[in-house]
Design brief:
Length: 386
């Protein structure tokens, strides 16, 4: 199936909804039955029927079908946040005494889950440089159950060779899980490369309008049904029907949005790479990127997230740069319509937290849907303030 069919028609079953072009929002907590036998059948198969919205809601089900198809997966579950999706995916595969291998520099809350939360229940994690396949395989123990990937990572954009990682996981009977938020299923489909479970912060590109927080887990029918019956139903981190409808709306324009971000980002990276104030560009599809060939092989595009290291150790100069910017919002996250900037120095001098080890001149950018020439001019003027 092509993307246009998935995004605009798959799962919508308009005959069931009076021919409605946009699917209705089934905003109900509960579902009634016509007979005791029908009720009893649903009690025994809540995964495939509608009994209670904490389990299966028709609006959410439409979204699940679309997301699974986009990722070439058999099925999908949608959660109330990306960190919730990651936690449920990991928890579904481990028990006390198990071990996980995870790439370094994974998302902050993934790190917290693996470093601080799971050890309380007897699950340990070894963190490795995901670029080093030998180190990755050497870190696997007899009790290792999960290989957790994030490619590219969301700060330094480091990649893992997904096909090679999948082979390592299968060789050692591990379940491979990846956070695929960076590239979205438009530009990278890890299941086609052998990865078992795909997670997303759907807050990013998938919704794309900076107004909904959600998470996604895609995998085989067998894995998804097990997660549904256990972690999903027990922990209850579901997405509301109204939010699911908003994400369906956001999906309609996903290819257009990420393509424009990708095209604009390439132009901005080309401008910055030639600027004497810039030391390094972190963008997988920029020719200077150390893993450029791998990025070309397993990602058909990148989108709008990249980072820059400026040639300065002066916090005052960086503050002057940020104070001059007019077209970028100071904010976390990415994937929406607005361009964003996350400075390393924003992580300095926070009471109760260790000082960031990122250099003063490190900045993460996200390029949204604004006119690229306007953004370049804004950057040019802000750099002049340094």
């Amino acid at each position: 199936m092509d993307f246009s069919y998935i995004l605009n028609h798959l799962g919508e079953d308009r005959d069931n909804y009076f021919g409605s072009v946009s699917p209705p929002i089934i905003q109900t907590s509960n579902f009634a039955f016509k007979s005791l036998s029908e009720f009893r059948a649903s009690m025994g198969n809540e995964f495939s029927t509608h009994m209670y919205t904490r389990g299966n809601n028709p609006t959410v089900q439409i979204l699940r079908k679309k997301l699974a198809a986009l990722e070439s997966a058999e099925d999908c579950l949608v959660f109330s946040s990306g960190s919730g999706a990651i936690a449920n995916a990991v928890l579904s595969q481990v028990q006390q005494g198990d071990h996980i291998v995870c790439v370094k520099s994974a998302y902050t809350w993934t790190n917290k889950l693996l470093k601080d939360f799971l050890p309380r229940f007897g699950v340990q994690t070894t963190f490795v440089d995901g670029r080093d396949l030998v180190a990755m395989e050497d870190a696997i123990h007899e009790n290792t159950r999960v290989l957790f990937l994030e490619s590219p990572t969301s700060m330094h954009m480091e990649l893992q060779d997904l096909e090679a990682c999948a082979k390592i996981a299968k060789k050692h009977n591990l379940i491979s899980i990846i956070d695929n938020s960076y590239a979205s299923p438009i530009y990278q489909r890890p299941i086609e490369l052998g990865i078992d479970i795909i997670t997303h912060s759907g807050t990013k590109y998938i919704n794309g309008h900076s107004d909904i927080v959600c998470g996604v887990v895609c995998a085989s029918k067998e894995i998804i049904s097990e997660v549904f019956a256990n972690e999903y139903m027990t922990l209850g981190g579901i997405i509301a029907p109204h939010d699911a409808a908003q994400v369906i709306r956001g999906l309609r324009t996903l290819p257009l949005r990420i393509k424009q971000s990708d095209e604009s980002t390439k132009k901005i990276c080309a401008f910055l790479a030639e600027h004497p104030a810039v030391e390094k560009i972190y963008y997988p599809h920029h020719p200077s990127f150390p893993q450029y060939e791998l990025a070309q092989k397993q990602m058909s595009g990148c989108g709008g997230l990249f980072a820059v290291k400026f040639k300065t150790d002066s916090q005052e100069k960086m503050e002057a740069f940020f104070n001059k910017l007019n077209r970028f919002l100071l904010a976390v996250s990415w994937g929406g319509h607005e361009s964003l900037v996350l400075p390393a120095i924003a992580l300095y001098n926070i009471p109760g937290k260790e000082k960031s080890d990122m250099p003063v001149g490190f900045v993460r950018f996200y390029i949204g849907l604004e006119d690229v020439d306007v953004l370049i001019e804004d950057l040019r003027e802000a750099i002049a303030e340094m």
